[in-house]
Specification:
Blueprint (H helix, E strand, L loop, with lengths): L2 E2 L9 E10 L2 E4 L1 E2 L13 E3 L2 E9 L2 E6 L10 E6 L1 H25 L3 E5 L4 E7 L5 H16 L4 E7 H5 L17 E7 L3 E4 L14 E9 L3 E8 L1
Parallel strand pairs: 1-4
Antiparallel strand pairs: 2-3, 2-8, 3-7, 5-6, 5-8, 6-7, 9-10, 10-15, 11-12, 12-13, 14-15
Helix pairs in contact: 1-2
This protein binds zinc ion.
The site of zinc ion has 4 residues, from helix 1.
């Protein structure tokens, strides 16, 4: 098991760890600050002992840091990781903006999002909306930016599975309930929004900057896909 350092501290840019195992061209560490691909957030990149990290993924319960070659890496030895901070920080801002936007959509329409994928420079989010109203998207951008400007502080806490499942409002993503998690990580944005979530977030909403909705498109009869970026 790899300890995920970013769950408690999303601002960790460098870290020291011990190498547990080498699997092909991938290194498994006892702890890591690299976010692995998942939950709609792309993985972190950077370096491990100065070697480029090409991808970080979870396979069979193991967090794999894939390198071009693992030559010089040995189990039991130390590794120093450095994140590509510009990339990670963008995804922190993006992820926080996604929660706020989904929160506004939920408060305004009662709709939950059905999928999302963060990207650089643009991200997308899907949600149900039978009656398309272009005015709504102008309002959405405005209201999301108002929340961001509110200087809200994000806080991380942990709750037991039993306690979390009693609060369905903690899951904004429709039909997705993570299995076999004994403890959930809860991300709250001031008193605006609370979500069970494993992603990386900024501490203060002001760090996000501004969201700009780029376009929307139809995905099936009821689903609407919305694209946005950060300024
Ligand atoms: Zn999230």
């Amino acid at each position: 098991m790899t300890e995920l350092l970013y769950l408690k501290d999303s601002y960790l840019k460098e870290f020291d760890a011990e190498i547990l195992e080498i699997i092909g061209n991938a290194v498994v560490l006892d702890k890591t600050a690299f976010y692995y691909q998942g939950g709609g957030q792309p993985c972190d990149l950077g370096t491990l002992n100065g070697k480029k990290v090409l991808e970080v993924v979870k396979r069979d319960g193991k967090i794999l840091h894939r390198l071009e070659s693992t030559e010089g890496f040995r189990a039991g030895e130390k590794a120093h990781g450095v994140l590509d901070w510009e990339r990670r920080y963008y995804f922190m801002r993006m992820h926080s903006s996604a929660h706020i936007m989904a929160g506004v959509i939920f408060k305004e329409t009662g709709k939950m999002i059905t999928g999302n994928q963060l990207g650089m420079p643009e991200s997308r989010m899907d949600f149900n909306m039978e009656n398309y109203n272009p005015e709504f998207f102008k309002e959405l951008e405005k209201k999301t930016n108002q929340v961001i400007e509110g200087n809200l502080v994000q806080e991380i806490s942990f709750k037991s599975r039993e306690e979390t499942l009693k609060m369905p409002e903690l899951f904004r993503l429709q039909d997705v309930l993570p299995k076999e998690i004994p403890e959930f990580r809860i991300v709250s944005i001031g008193d605006f929004d609370v979500q069970a979530d494993g992603g990386t977030h900024v501490k203060n909403t002001r760090e996000i900057g501004k969201v700009r909705i780029l376009r929307t498109e139809n995905k099936g009869a009821q689903n609407r896909r919305i694209y946005w970026t950060l300024e």
